[in-house]
């Protein structure tokens, strides 16, 4: 199983069960995004599935941005990262597809839906530019 599949499965597991440890998604970023959602809902369990998906994907995007910044600042073997970046790009395409499907299924096109799509488009553009310039 590749990185794309591992991350995809992890994200959907977090949608169902919440995030319990630091790793693929930073707990710091998760808590920051969760606080925004808790302005509307009392707890994670009260958040509808489609909104949990937005919460987890947004947390993953912010974590990924942090990781990319770290890679660029520290100039890790960026030339060796092309395969990783390509898997991330494919993953974000799949997540975008799922977000659109969830919105259709639940007929919810709220601000979090729009924000999540915008963030995915931004991170995909960043990753595409990184791949192009490696």
In short:
This protein is mainly α.
Written account of the structure:
The protein is mainly α and 134 residues long. The chain has one domain (3-15, 48-132). Helices cover 74% and strands 0% of the residues. It has 5 helices and no strands. The longest helix has 26 residues, at 49-74. The radius of gyration is 15 Å and the shape is globular. The protein starts with a helix and ends with a helix. The relative contact order is 0.14.
Largest sheet geometry: none
Calculate Rg over CA atoms. 15 Å
- The total of helices stands at 5
- Helix fraction? over 70%
> Which geometry do the CA atoms define?
globular
Number of structural domains: 1
Number of strands: 0
Ranges where pLDDT stays below 50 over 5 or more residues in a row are: none
Calculate the terminal CA-CA distance, rounded to whole Å.
Answer: 25 Å
* Helix and strand run: HHHHH
Strand residues, percent = under 5%
What is the average per-residue confidence, as pLDDT, rounded to a whole number?
Answer: 94
Summing up helix and strand content along with how strands pair, one would put the structural category as mainly alpha
